[in-house]
Amino acid sequence: MRQAGSSNNVASVVVIGVDARAMGQIRETLGAEAALPAQATRYEDALAVIRKLRPDVVIAGFDQDFEEAIRIAPQIVADNGRCQLVALASHANPDHIRAAMRAGYREFVVLPDDAELLRQAVHEAIYQEGGDEDHGEVIAVWGSKGGAGATFLSVNLAAELSPVHRVCVVDLDFSMGDVAAFLDIQPSVTIADLMRNLHKIDERMLAGHVVVHPSKVHAVAQPTDLEQREEVKGDTVMRILTTVARTYQYCLVDCGSRLDEATLTAATVADRILLIATPDVPGIKNTWRRLQLIERLGIEKSRVHVVINRWDKREAPFSLADVEQNILRKVDATVAFDKAAARAVNEGKLLREVDKKCPAAKDIEALVGLVTDGEMSVERRASGPMGWFSRFSGG
């Protein structure tokens, strides 16, 4: 539900922490589209000014004092959650982009290159959504190694959510993305087309760049043919996921097992991360390593859920307690090893279309509770001796 921002259809803007040159760029970009101050506000005066003026948009400079711009953002959001926070910098630093997202900034712009993006952010602030509760959940599904099952779980979890929710799967594996293959759909438009028109992306444009599965799952797919392209930038991913989250109740982001700027950005902005592990030594070792990376990125532990895929308690060489001791945290869920899963993949079907009563299908159905704040539990065996396995995490 949208609510009106400024009554006169001109967004009020407060600019903090920028020099005269950057202020001139902002004026040149926004022109008569916004009510701009005569000069920028200093960081130390910003909260008082924002509380007094209650602006629609706050533009914060990252060049003069990046750490102060990050520190002040949560306070601005707490005081005036309705306003749009925009980070302004002279160049796109990936670390700064991720930090901005964590702090609460909606956009990261570099002028003059991102002039249209800044104008769009200001325009949207006039008739912006009522609050974070109107934005969908972004769930990053990230494999701890290749073949962990991130795509399989992304599409099948989306299918479990789709009967009662608007759901979109975004394929962020820019080398070998297989969401379209897993759903047996031939995309006529892909994420590559979306990126080529990124300067005008909105909910209406997004609707023309998704493919729809009969289960009502929507997907932003990778091209069928491999394309050579430069590494996708974090601000590009941020814009796509922000638009998807405004349009759908759940956005499942298939990160594959990749470690690149696109997947790191997705993990940073996600409301939840499903970290997918397999019950073998490489899978558990790399889960521990991935958890260490997540901690270094500053992502809260509460947002991360470890899921063991292809779990067979009778055949696994170690118990869940063993796994937890090695990754230094609890396992949140398991998905059973199931021959029906391989059949579903090979036939381009959802697991529930192959056998909706199989153990893996029931486990994926239970995962809905994990991503929607329901309760679920996993069965544990008594812990056995750790032996050589413990060397991977120093246990």
Could you characterize the architecture of this molecule?
- This protein has 16 helices and 13 strands.
- The chain has helices at 20-30, 43-53, 66-79, 94-103, 115-126, 150-161, 179-183, 191-196, 203-207, 234-247, 261-269, 281-296, 320-327, 339-347, 351-355, 359-371; strands at 11-16, 34-35, 57-61, 84-89, 107-110, 137-143, 167-171, 211-212, 218-220, 250-254, 272-277, 304-311, 333-336.
- Helix content is 41%, strand content 16%.
- The protein starts with 10 loop residues before the first strand and ends in a 24-residue tail after the last helix.
- It has 2 domains: 11-132, Response regulator (Rossmann fold); 135-392, P-loop containing nucleotide triphosphate hydrolases (Rossmann fold).
- With 395 residues, it is of the alpha/beta class.
- The protein has an 8-stranded mixed beta sheet with strand order 8-9-7-10-6-11-12-13, with helices on both faces. Strands 2-1-3-4-5 form a 5-stranded parallel beta sheet, sandwiched between helices.
- α12 (281-296) links the parallel β11 (272-277) and β12 (304-311).
